[in-house]
């Protein structure tokens, strides 16, 4: 399902049949469950933010969860959980690398 040469996988909120996955907040829920899996482990208050290894995003109008491969090395069972979630719900998984947002140039 995922190739080890990519740095991230995108779990897309679209089934292989082309239907939008529901509920509409699935990405935030999945990322929230994964919030405790982070570099350095759980710290006080870390449950209040998403893990840098599992981030909900909207990409080209599609809700996604971007899962960093570092999760697989540090918490294999957590990695299996998100990959099984995608498989069990027939969600499309794309291997890619998330690029940082670039600020738009100032207009004069």
From TrEMBL:
The record's listing under InterPro entries reads: DUF3579
Which protein, by its recorded name, is this?
Answer: Uncharacterized protein DUF3579
- Annotated source species: Simplicispira metamorpha
